[in-house]
Amino acid sequence: MTAALQTNAPSRKIGARLGRLLIVAALGFVAPMAHAVAASTPLVTDVLPSGVPLPAPAPDFAPAVSDASTELLGNAGGVRPWLDRHGVQINLQDVEELWGLASGGVRPGPTYDGITAVTLQLNTQQAFGWHDGLFNISALQIRGRSLTNERLQSLNAVSGYDAGRSTRLFELWYGQGFFGNRLDVRVGSVDLDTEFLVSQNASLFLNASFGWPLSTSSNLYSGGPSWPYSAVGVRVKWAPAHPLVLMGAVTDDNPTHGPFYSSVAANQRDPSGTQFSTEGGALFIGEAQLWVDAARRLATGDSAALPGTWKVGALFDTGRFPDQRYDDRGGLLGSPESDGRPFYHRGNWMAYTVIDQMLWRAAKGQQKAISVFIRATANDGVRNRFSSEVEAGLTFDGLVPGRIDDTIGVAWGTTLYGRRALKSARDAMRLGGSGADDLKPENHLELTWQIAVTPYLNLQPDLQYFWNVGGVARSSAGGIANGFVAGLNMTTTF
């Protein structure tokens, strides 16, 4: 009996330690921590959808600090310091991408895409003495061609910058802080994917699904208020007690005011981004963020902190959404006799969770670290073609010898079809209707290396592999060969 107890003692200690870790992670907000306030100033990189430098995987409660040394133009001959004194900040970023479909898809070959983003922010306290106010306006110039649409034909866009060509307004809002900025309210035309549903570690990757996921971009009108579109609405961010942050927003659900199914591209319906549509439904979204540092709380001595952010959220859209199996006469959409017009339901929803967690750090305060991200979504399988989605990946910071500011990442993602979409495809195969293909979840794998050439210039070689391209089995009539894509992203901050 004694020997057995001695043998099981280490396992009991490990189990107890794991139990404490889970308790700390779930109830971390109970322990007192340093005072923190909600951020009112967005990060400069918020205007970029992917391939951005990684902040620590925790909410950034402090306003971003202006540092001209991290920008190509520096002080711009003294112009930037003068503007800063008057509460004005102007940020200019340029992204150039070269992509090549090496094999698979429908037409191997190269493409180019790029964007230039300009953001102007006015701090009202510095400008004219109004405390805790911020005016923000940004614009995009999007150019190039789409490798995803023209060569690969995948469901998940190869790049977050793979968007329709246009020169457009991006965001236009006024933010006001209350109670020492613990409460932060924005009103205007806002982009939800700069704050909601986002994983900070996933923002390293270039594939668009690691930003705003396919389960929202395909299931909402015009993809919802996400890059490069914004929508009229209100966003509220509240930090009731560190380390808990609560966010909510209400926006118009259709930023370009078009039908759910349309032969006209969203960017063509609103090429300038100035439509400011208030018709259609309303989109409600809420998210709770919990900052955890379980390692510091459980460790003894000077142990490396392992920060993380755990998020849960949900959205509800009051608009009308198409049934994925039945038409407006009650027949099957997959039948040759169908009129092709789906029956529409009122309302739609989605729930999600996001985990960003540092797993290992060489020493406290050092950049050498390994982090993980996981994001999962779930929604209704009646109204939505895609009912669930999972992305996960690892990032390795500062592990390349002599390259302390570089980050390497590997990530995978997939999206599962809803039950009615699957049944509709089987109906079409059985009855000989249109779209008679065997649906299979598309999977994509990405390997990327963000190279910090200078503080203002990043080069990012990138490799991606797709299978079940287009969400169709390769053996099906409409099947597409597995695709291998190579690319290079260059991001410059002026």
TrEMBL record:
Pfam family, one: OprB
GO MF term set: porin activity
GO cellular component, one term: membrane
InterPro entries, per the entry: Carb-sel_porin_OprB (IPR007049), OprB_Porin (IPR052932), OprB_sf (IPR038673)
Top-rank lineage group of the source organism: Bacteria
GO biological process: carbohydrate transport
Glycosyltransferase listed as a keyword: no
Secretion signal, residue range per the UniProt entry: 1-36
S-adenosyl-L-methionine among keywords: no
Keywords for the protein's UniProt record, in alphabetical order: Signal
Protein family per UniProt: Belongs to the OprB family.
This protein's name: Porin
Source organism of the structure: Acetobacter nitrogenifigens DSM 23921 = NBRC 105050
